[in-house]
Specification:
Elements (H helix, E strand, L loop, with lengths): L2 E4 L3 E3 L2 E3 L4 E3 L3 H9 L3 E3 L3 H29 L2
Antiparallel strand pairs: 1-4, 1-5, 2-3
Length: 76
């Protein structure tokens, strides 16, 4: 089962969801319709997001370190 986040207020299966809420939609046809009308978006795996954010942070730190080393070497 896929998880989705509402982009706009949505009523599904008798429940009202505000924009940004998490909703489980079981019917593929409903998912397809909602995606096409940009009412929902798929929630990506949070572990992938955390790993990606950590890699970006590590890369930024490496770049900063390299920049500092390059400046230090220029001043010699």
């Amino acid at each position: 089962m896929m998880k989705y986040k509402t982009l706009k207020p949505l009523i599904y299966s008798g429940v009202s969801y505000e924009a940004g809420a998490e909703v489980d939609i079981l019917e593929k046809s409903v998912v397809k319709s909602c995606l096409e009308r940009e009412l929902i978006e798929e929630i990506k795996d949070t572990t992938e997001k955390v790993v990606s954010e950590n890699l970006i942070e590590e890369n930024n730190q490496d770049v900063e370190k390299t920049d500092k080393e390059n400046k230090k070497n220029k001043n010699k």
